[in-house]
Amino acid sequence: MKRALGYGLLGLAAFLLFLLLRVPANLVTGQVGTRLSDFSVQDVEGTATEGTMLGARWRGARIERLTWRWRPLALLLGRLEFNLSADDPEIKLIGNAAMGLGRQVHFRDLAGRLPLSRLGNLAGNLPLQGTVEFALPELDLGATGRPLAARGTVRLLNLRTALNPPTSIGDFVVQLDSTSTEGVRGKIKDNNGPLVLDGTLGLLPDGRYRFDGQAAVRDAANQSLRQAMSLLGPPGSDGRWTLNFSGALAP
After folding, report:
1. Comparison of pLDDT for 163 and 82, the residue scoring more
2. Region 14-19: what's the mean pLDDT?
3. Share of the chain above pLDDT 90, in %
4. Residues in CB range of 15: below 8 A, 6 or more apart
Protein backbone atom coordinates (compact mmCIF):
# COMPACT_ATOMS: atom_id res chain seq x y z
CA MET A 1 0.00 0.00 0.00
CA LYS A 2 2.79 2.43 0.94
CA ARG A 3 4.68 1.51 -2.23
CA ALA A 4 1.60 2.17 -4.36
CA LEU A 5 1.11 5.53 -2.63
CA GLY A 6 4.75 6.43 -3.29
CA TYR A 7 4.45 5.55 -6.97
CA GLY A 8 1.24 7.56 -7.18
CA LEU A 9 2.85 10.67 -5.68
CA LEU A 10 5.85 10.28 -7.98
CA GLY A 11 3.56 10.00 -10.98
CA LEU A 12 1.61 13.08 -9.88
CA ALA A 13 4.83 15.07 -9.47
CA ALA A 14 5.99 13.98 -12.92
CA PHE A 15 2.65 15.01 -14.42
CA LEU A 16 2.76 18.43 -12.73
CA LEU A 17 6.33 18.95 -13.96
CA PHE A 18 5.21 18.03 -17.48
CA LEU A 19 2.44 20.64 -17.27
CA LEU A 20 4.89 23.26 -15.99
CA LEU A 21 7.24 22.59 -18.89
CA ARG A 22 4.35 23.21 -21.29
CA VAL A 23 3.11 26.47 -19.74
CA PRO A 24 3.63 29.39 -22.18
CA ALA A 25 6.29 32.00 -21.46
CA ASN A 26 3.80 34.87 -21.16
CA LEU A 27 2.85 33.49 -17.73
CA VAL A 28 6.27 34.68 -16.48
CA THR A 29 6.07 38.09 -18.15
CA GLY A 30 2.59 38.53 -16.73
CA GLN A 31 3.90 37.86 -13.22
CA VAL A 32 6.76 40.32 -13.74
CA GLY A 33 4.29 42.93 -14.97
CA THR A 34 2.24 42.64 -11.77
CA ARG A 35 5.38 43.23 -9.70
CA LEU A 36 7.07 46.00 -11.69
CA SER A 37 4.96 48.98 -12.74
CA ASP A 38 5.48 50.35 -16.25
CA PHE A 39 6.94 47.01 -17.44
CA SER A 40 6.19 45.82 -20.98
CA VAL A 41 7.52 43.51 -23.71
CA GLN A 42 7.05 43.48 -27.47
CA ASP A 43 7.01 39.69 -27.82
CA VAL A 44 7.64 36.51 -25.84
CA GLU A 45 9.08 33.15 -26.91
CA GLY A 46 9.45 29.76 -25.20
CA THR A 47 7.88 28.38 -22.03
CA ALA A 48 7.55 29.41 -18.40
CA THR A 49 10.69 27.47 -17.49
CA GLU A 50 12.86 28.64 -20.40
CA GLY A 51 11.95 31.60 -22.54
CA THR A 52 12.89 34.95 -24.04
CA MET A 53 11.48 38.47 -23.80
CA LEU A 54 11.92 40.62 -26.90
CA GLY A 55 11.96 44.38 -26.50
CA ALA A 56 11.62 44.35 -22.71
CA ARG A 57 11.07 47.87 -21.36
CA TRP A 58 10.87 49.18 -17.80
CA ARG A 59 10.67 52.86 -16.84
CA GLY A 60 12.28 53.89 -20.13
CA ALA A 61 15.14 51.36 -19.94
CA ARG A 62 15.03 48.87 -22.82
CA ILE A 63 16.72 45.51 -23.49
CA GLU A 64 16.49 43.99 -26.96
CA ARG A 65 16.53 40.35 -25.82
CA LEU A 66 16.30 38.96 -22.28
CA THR A 67 16.44 35.20 -21.74
CA TRP A 68 15.48 33.31 -18.58
CA ARG A 69 15.94 29.74 -17.39
CA TRP A 70 14.18 28.22 -14.38
CA ARG A 71 16.43 27.07 -11.51
CA PRO A 72 14.48 24.14 -10.01
CA LEU A 73 16.98 23.53 -7.18
CA ALA A 74 16.01 26.92 -5.72
CA LEU A 75 12.66 25.35 -4.75
CA LEU A 76 14.55 23.55 -1.99
CA LEU A 77 15.13 27.00 -0.46
CA GLY A 78 11.50 27.99 -0.96
CA ARG A 79 12.15 30.31 -3.93
CA LEU A 80 10.83 30.47 -7.47
CA GLU A 81 14.06 31.57 -9.14
CA PHE A 82 15.28 32.13 -12.70
CA ASN A 83 18.67 32.74 -14.29
CA LEU A 84 18.70 35.86 -16.50
CA SER A 85 20.96 36.89 -19.36
CA ALA A 86 20.70 39.80 -21.79
CA ASP A 87 21.57 39.71 -25.48
CA ASP A 88 21.78 43.35 -26.51
CA PRO A 89 24.36 45.32 -28.54
CA GLU A 90 24.94 47.76 -25.65
CA ILE A 91 23.75 45.97 -22.51
CA LYS A 92 25.46 43.04 -20.82
CA LEU A 93 23.53 41.46 -17.96
CA ILE A 94 23.57 38.17 -16.09
CA GLY A 95 22.16 37.11 -12.74
CA ASN A 96 19.38 35.35 -10.87
CA ALA A 97 15.92 36.72 -10.11
CA ALA A 98 13.33 35.38 -7.68
CA MET A 99 9.72 36.48 -7.22
CA GLY A 100 8.86 36.96 -3.56
CA LEU A 101 5.76 37.66 -1.55
CA GLY A 102 4.28 41.14 -1.56
CA ARG A 103 5.12 41.64 -5.28
CA GLN A 104 8.82 41.97 -4.51
CA VAL A 105 11.59 40.91 -6.90
CA HIS A 106 14.90 39.67 -5.49
CA PHE A 107 18.05 39.70 -7.65
CA ARG A 108 21.15 37.74 -6.70
CA ASP A 109 24.65 37.78 -8.24
CA LEU A 110 23.59 40.45 -10.70
CA ALA A 111 26.37 41.79 -12.94
CA GLY A 112 26.41 43.86 -16.09
CA ARG A 113 27.52 46.84 -18.13
CA LEU A 114 25.52 49.45 -20.05
CA PRO A 115 25.64 53.09 -21.20
CA LEU A 116 24.27 55.54 -18.65
CA SER A 117 21.85 56.80 -21.29
CA ARG A 118 20.18 53.35 -21.49
CA LEU A 119 18.99 53.60 -17.89
CA GLY A 120 16.17 55.81 -19.09
CA ASN A 121 13.96 57.22 -16.34
CA LEU A 122 15.82 55.14 -13.74
CA ALA A 123 18.63 57.69 -13.80
CA GLY A 124 16.35 60.70 -13.94
CA ASN A 125 17.42 63.64 -16.09
CA LEU A 126 21.10 63.51 -15.20
CA PRO A 127 23.13 65.75 -17.54
CA LEU A 128 25.84 63.10 -17.74
CA GLN A 129 27.13 60.55 -20.22
CA GLY A 130 29.26 57.49 -19.62
CA THR A 131 29.16 53.79 -18.80
CA VAL A 132 27.80 51.93 -15.78
CA GLU A 133 29.31 48.65 -14.55
CA PHE A 134 27.79 46.82 -11.59
CA ALA A 135 28.35 43.70 -9.53
CA LEU A 136 25.55 43.28 -7.01
CA PRO A 137 25.37 40.11 -4.92
CA GLU A 138 21.98 41.37 -3.67
CA LEU A 139 19.35 43.75 -5.04
CA ASP A 140 15.73 43.82 -3.83
CA LEU A 141 12.96 45.78 -5.57
CA GLY A 142 9.62 46.60 -3.98
CA ALA A 143 6.15 46.50 -5.48
CA THR A 144 6.66 49.89 -7.17
CA GLY A 145 10.04 48.89 -8.61
CA ARG A 146 11.97 51.04 -6.16
CA PRO A 147 15.13 49.54 -4.64
CA LEU A 148 14.62 48.30 -1.08
CA ALA A 149 18.14 47.00 -0.46
CA ALA A 150 21.38 46.61 -2.38
CA ARG A 151 24.84 45.25 -1.69
CA GLY A 152 27.78 45.43 -4.06
CA THR A 153 29.75 47.78 -6.29
CA VAL A 154 28.73 50.17 -9.06
CA ARG A 155 31.40 51.78 -11.25
CA LEU A 156 30.72 54.92 -13.27
CA LEU A 157 33.26 55.03 -16.07
CA ASN A 158 34.34 57.83 -18.39
CA LEU A 159 31.72 60.21 -17.06
CA ARG A 160 31.38 63.50 -18.88
CA THR A 161 28.91 66.33 -18.86
CA ALA A 162 26.22 66.58 -21.52
CA LEU A 163 27.18 70.22 -22.11
CA ASN A 164 28.48 71.48 -25.44
CA PRO A 165 31.32 70.65 -25.63
CA PRO A 166 31.29 67.66 -23.21
CA THR A 167 33.66 67.90 -20.24
CA SER A 168 35.30 64.82 -18.73
CA ILE A 169 34.88 64.39 -14.98
CA GLY A 170 36.45 60.91 -14.58
CA ASP A 171 35.63 57.51 -13.06
CA PHE A 172 33.83 56.85 -9.77
CA VAL A 173 33.09 53.91 -7.49
CA VAL A 174 29.85 53.51 -5.53
CA GLN A 175 30.00 50.96 -2.71
CA LEU A 176 26.54 49.80 -1.57
CA ASP A 177 25.84 47.99 1.67
CA SER A 178 22.34 47.99 3.13
CA THR A 179 19.41 45.99 4.46
CA SER A 180 15.72 46.10 3.63
CA THR A 181 14.92 47.94 6.89
CA GLU A 182 17.13 50.96 6.17
CA GLY A 183 16.89 51.16 2.40
CA VAL A 184 19.86 51.57 0.08
CA ARG A 185 22.96 53.24 1.53
CA GLY A 186 26.31 53.76 -0.11
CA LYS A 187 29.52 55.71 -0.44
CA ILE A 188 30.84 57.25 -3.64
CA LYS A 189 34.44 58.24 -4.35
CA ASP A 190 36.42 59.34 -7.39
CA ASN A 191 39.20 57.30 -8.96
CA ASN A 192 41.81 60.07 -9.31
CA GLY A 193 40.02 61.68 -12.24
CA PRO A 194 39.50 65.37 -13.09
CA LEU A 195 36.76 65.73 -10.43
CA VAL A 196 37.50 65.00 -6.77
CA LEU A 197 34.34 63.60 -5.17
CA ASP A 198 33.62 62.04 -1.80
CA GLY A 199 30.08 61.54 -0.53
CA THR A 200 27.34 59.34 0.87
CA LEU A 201 23.94 58.53 -0.55
CA GLY A 202 20.77 57.05 0.85
CA LEU A 203 17.51 55.83 -0.67
CA LEU A 204 14.64 54.93 1.64
CA PRO A 205 12.04 52.27 0.73
CA ASP A 206 9.42 55.02 0.22
CA GLY A 207 11.52 56.59 -2.57
CA ARG A 208 13.05 59.50 -0.66
CA TYR A 209 16.75 60.00 -1.43
CA ARG A 210 19.59 62.15 -0.16
CA PHE A 211 23.18 62.77 -1.25
CA ASP A 212 25.76 64.61 0.85
CA GLY A 213 29.35 65.18 -0.17
CA GLN A 214 32.10 67.45 -1.34
CA ALA A 215 33.62 68.00 -4.78
CA ALA A 216 36.63 69.85 -6.15
CA VAL A 217 38.50 70.27 -9.43
CA ARG A 218 41.76 68.32 -9.17
CA ASP A 219 43.67 70.49 -11.67
CA ALA A 220 43.16 74.22 -11.08
CA ALA A 221 44.05 74.84 -14.75
CA ASN A 222 41.04 72.77 -15.92
CA GLN A 223 38.90 75.76 -16.88
CA SER A 224 36.20 73.78 -18.70
CA LEU A 225 35.44 71.69 -15.60
CA ARG A 226 35.59 74.72 -13.31
CA GLN A 227 33.09 76.46 -15.57
CA ALA A 228 30.78 73.42 -15.47
CA MET A 229 31.02 73.26 -11.66
CA SER A 230 30.24 76.97 -11.43
CA LEU A 231 26.65 76.07 -12.30
CA LEU A 232 26.43 74.87 -8.68
CA GLY A 233 27.55 78.25 -7.41
CA PRO A 234 30.92 79.42 -6.12
CA PRO A 235 33.16 77.00 -4.19
CA GLY A 236 34.07 77.49 -0.54
CA SER A 237 37.27 79.08 0.70
CA ASP A 238 38.96 75.65 0.47
CA GLY A 239 38.09 75.38 -3.24
CA ARG A 240 35.48 72.69 -2.64
CA TRP A 241 31.78 72.58 -3.41
CA THR A 242 29.50 71.26 -0.70
CA LEU A 243 26.83 69.02 -2.23
CA ASN A 244 23.46 68.40 -0.62
CA PHE A 245 20.70 66.95 -2.78
CA SER A 246 17.45 65.41 -1.63
CA GLY A 247 14.09 64.54 -3.11
CA ALA A 248 11.86 61.61 -3.99
CA LEU A 249 11.81 59.18 -6.90
CA ALA A 250 8.76 59.17 -9.11
CA PRO A 251 6.29 56.38 -8.18
Report:
1. 82
2. 37
3. 33
4. none
CB atoms closer than 10 angstroms to residue 22: 10
From the list 195, 197, 241, the residue with the least C-alpha distance to 222 is: 195
The CA-atom distances, in angstroms, between 181 and each of 43, 145, 147 are 37, 16, 12
- The DSSP annotation for 14-27 comes to HHHHHHHHHSBTHH
pLDDT digits (tens, 9 = 90+) for 187-241: 999 999 999 999 999 988 888 889 999 999 999 899 999 988 888 899 999 999 9
Q: What is the pTM of this model?
A: 0.81
CA–centroid distance for 38 within its chain: 15
Contact 94, 111 (CB under 8 A): yes
Alpha carbon separation from 12 to 2, 5, 32, 39 (Å, rounded) = 15, 10, 28, 35
Cβ-contact 42, 55 below 8 angstroms: yes
63-117 residue pLDDT tens: 889 898 888 777 667 677 889 998 888 889 999 988 766 667 889 999 999 988 8
Burial (CB count within 10 angstroms: exposed 0-12, middle 13-18, buried 19+), residue 181: exposed
Instruction: Determine the Cα–Cα distance for residues 77 and 79; give it in Å rounded to an integer.
Output: 6
Which residues lie closer than 8 Å to 58 by C-beta, 6 or more apart? 36, 38, 39, 40, 145
